[in-house]
Amino acid sequence: MGTGSIVKTDLYAIHNIVQNTMMSYSKELFIETLRKEFSKDSYYHYVRDVWGHPNTPDLTDVPIEAGLHDDITSRLFIGEAFRYDMKFFPAILVRSGGFKYVPISMSRNEGLVKYKAVRILDGYGNEKIFSTPSHFALAGAWEGNVSIDILAGDIKARDDLAEIVSAIINITNFKSMENAGVVVKPTTLGTPSEADDYKDKIYKISISCDVRTEWAQNIPIDSMVEAISFCIDFGSLVNPTPVLAPGLEIRTTIELIDMIQNM
Predict the structure, then answer these.
(1) pTM for this structure?
(2) 152-164 per-residue burial string, b: 16 or more CB within 10 A, e: under 16
(3) What is the per-residue pLDDT across 231-262, written as a single tens digit (0 to 9) for each?
(4) Which of 19, 117, 206, 214 is least buried, going by the fewest C-beta atoms within 10 A?
(5) Could you tell me where the beta strands, DSSP code E, fall in the chain?
């Protein structure tokens, strides 16, 4: 499941920021999760057009069952806001609220070091894997709010969609959203309301989701010197199954800076 969250900037690469999932990413993840789930449904069936937007064509003279067993039209709109001046009901509109920075420690995990595995293989087939420091890993968190407005032409559809959306976010997709970097905290359903839209009534309800996301910065370690001690055992190179010579070994120490300079 992709969110299309692409940031057009060089600053993340310049400052070694490897994760910064906050306002835009959280909103897009909610939208894409809801679209993915409702695309499986037969009654509230979500369909994309050729451009990836909700397929909401002119419904003049279109059968009332359109979209139930085909992809002629989406049976609900899911997005950040209505495109152009068109309105399509029922609709699920997702918007980002405010966010605040929440430090996870006073030092922002300044002392945390990430290691990488280095595999060394000599000409005799001896192999050894060493763990060497690669990055200082700084981290923090963001906490904020994502609001979901549900608009429908009747009370039953509004109430049903409020329950379905709550189940999608808090039950069926909680773990997948957590794995994608957004944790959904307590969810609150607002008071149902209604408004006039020309001659029709529009029934509304809002779902407020508190979320927690993270940022991470991996600063490369270029000047770290670490001594690596390893032992190479020599055996018979003639036998198909080499027999190691007992007690024969070579011990040496190589500094990491020398390995880097020789690359």
Answers:
(1) 0.75
(2) beeeebbbbbbeb
(3) 444 444 445 555 555 554 545 555 555 655 55
(4) 117
(5) 17-20, 77-79, 91-102, 113-121, 127-152, 183-189, 193-197, 200-220, 227-235, 244-255
